Amino acid sequence: MKHNSLFLDAAYCKKTARAPIWxxxxxxxxMEEYRxxxxxxxxxEIATTPELATEVCLQPIRAFHFDAAIIFADIILPLIPxxxxxxxxxxxxxxxxxxxxxxxxxxxxxxVEWQRDFAFLEKxxxxxRKELGETPLIGFSGAPFTLAGYLIEGGxxxxxxxxxxxxxxxxKVWDTLMKKLTSAVITYLQGQIESGVQAVQxxxxxxxxxxxxxxxxxxxxxxxxxxxxxxxxxxxxxxFGTNTFGMLQxxxxxxxxxxxxxxxxxxxxxxxxxxxxxxxxxxxxALLLAPFEIIKKRVDGIFNEIGSKPGFIFNxxxxxxxxxxxxxxxxxxxxxxxx
Length: 339
Prior knowledge:
alpha/beta, TIM Barrel, seven-stranded parallel beta sheet, two-stranded antiparallel ribbon, globular
């Protein structure tokens, strides 16, 4: 693949002049431009309207010149074609009308088809690529475990007790649910790649609630199936999870190019755990609320820890917070790009 991109080179562990930088949720509520749109439109309305999604995706690229863009969508989009009734409640997140408790509910899921169900996203990707020039575009999806968590809990959760209980008590329901979600995610990500995204990230945002043994038993086989299915698409694949340091060897066993880690995971030790893969991370998003001198010291610490070995992508350890000052984002991007 020919390209002119720090981000793509770093993802393939090629030597780069500097570390590329992008942020999870870099298009969002910390930007006034986005907040103005949200006064008129809901998140799903923006995500499913190509003109609006394109504008939101491009806002942080125009403002801060990140080294990669990420398509504006929502983690719940692959659930909707399955027939799940799900909404996004302000200040809460995804809310599922009828949480999954029985096999009969899972067996009623429809099959996901890219052209039928995501024509809007295909159009958005093509529109964004036309505007981005040489800046690469990242596609993404929630991972099966994280999506299953929303479906079973009925919404966000801290402990995911209902999810774990079903996982332990109802292995047939769990396996059927994870297989259907895995198939949907594969279709969703393959469609994004074929429409023009140049990298994909699988967000397993809540998998850190599991033990390494449970992750290996109940989650890893499905995640591995997704990455294996995307292996012939010739784009870098990023596997991201939060609070995964205790299971990082297991988490890194999937067939991907990049492992994303959060701020709880020391980069040096994490790199040793993931082997030859590139690493992405991992400034605590809360640090962007601190004085900039403190931020600079933490950034310097990250670069000192990661060293000069190729294959590092600077990012936050999770999504940027809505309270983040715009000026801090600008200064941070410029500081990282100057190193």
